Amino acid sequence: MLWIWNFNIEGNIGPGIKEVTIQYSLTGGTNPGEWTTLENTIIPQATGTADYLGSAVADFAGTRAKYVCLSAHSDWGSPYGDQGLSEVRFYKKMAQLTLQTQPEGINTISPFSDSYDFGSVVPIAALRYVNCPAVMAFDHWEGEGIADPYSASTSVVMDQDKTVRAVFQDDHQCGDECHPPVKADLSKDCSVDIEDLHLFAYAWLDDSPEPDNGDLNEDGHVDMEDFSMIAQSWLDLLLEP
Ligand SMILES: [Ca+2]
Ligand SMILES: [Ca+2]
After folding, report:
1. How far is the CA of 239 from the centre of ligand 2 (A)?
2. Phi-psi region of 187 (alpha: psi -120 to 50; beta: other; left: phi over 0)
3. Which of 70, 90, 110 is the last residue of a domain?
4. Ion ligand 2, residues whose Cβ is below 5 A away
5. Could you give the C-alpha distances from 36 to 1, 23, 70, 71, 235, in angstroms and in order?
6. Does residue 80 sit in the same domain as residue 35?
7. Rounded distance, CA 64 to CA 53, Å?
8. Nearest ligand to the C-alpha of residue 190?
9. How many domains does the chain divide into?
10. 181 lies in a domain?
C-alpha cells in the first residue's frame, strides 16, 4: 500500500502533485524495459492544516517491487511551477490466516492463526488427535487455495484473508491406546461375549495355561474363579451405557 502526504503548507498547497504515473522495478536500471507501470492516478490535494492525514494512493496488491518511480505530470496550482510531496510511506500488505478444526477443539494442527505476508505460501499440517476416549484422524481440509485438500501436510497460498478447516473423523479402534481389550476379552475384539466363553471352555483345566488363554487371575489354573471374572466382564459390558 502506497500512502502519500501531498505538499502541505498552510496557505500554500498548490505545489502538491496532481496527476502522477506510478512505476515499479526489481532492478531500478535506466532501461525502460526494467520498469512496469502500476497505474496513472491522481494524488489528492493536501488540506493545508496540521491534522492532514494523507491518503492511500495505490495498492500494489502483492506485487514485488524494489524501486518505485513517481512521475509528476501536473500539480494543484503551483504559483511558481515548483512541485513536491510531504511524505511517502509503503505499508506491507498482510493476509490473515484463520485455522479451525471440525470437530472444534482439536489442537494437533499447525500453525496457529496469524497474519502472513500477502502472497506467501504457508505450510499447514494436521496430526492424529488422541485425548481418550477420543481418537481422531485427519480426513480433509476445507477452504480455498489449499494445495492438496486430502493431504495432512500441505500448504495454503495467502492471496487474501483465508479460513481453513481441518476436518477430522472418529478413528477409535479396538486395541488403540484408548481402547485396550479387557482381560476377559480372549478374542481381543473389545467385546466380552459367547465367543470368549467358547475360547475359555477350550482352556478349562488346562495344565499349563497362559493368561491370554483363560487364566485371568494368573494362578496357574483355568477354573471357576476365572470363569467368574469372564462373567463379570460380560455383565459389565452389557450394562455399559
Ligand atoms: Ca471378545
Ligand atoms: Ca486362574
Report:
1. 25
2. alpha
3. 90
4. 215, 217, 219, 221, 226
5. 17, 5, 12, 13, 79
6. yes
7. 26
8. 1
9. 3
10. no
Whether residue 215 lies inside any domain: the answer is yes
Q: Is residue 103 part of a domain?
A: yes
- Alpha-carbon gap, residue 30 to 107, rounded angstroms: 53
Q: Answer yes or no: do 160 and 206 share one domain.
A: no
- The answer as to whether 183 is a domain residue is no
Q: Which domain holds residue 164?
A: 94-170
DSSP-assigned beta bridge partners for residue 102:
167
Ordered mean pLDDT values, 10 residues apiece, the chain (241 residues):
95 96 96 96 96 93 89 94 94 92 96 90 97 95 96 95 97 89 87 90 78 84 91 85 64
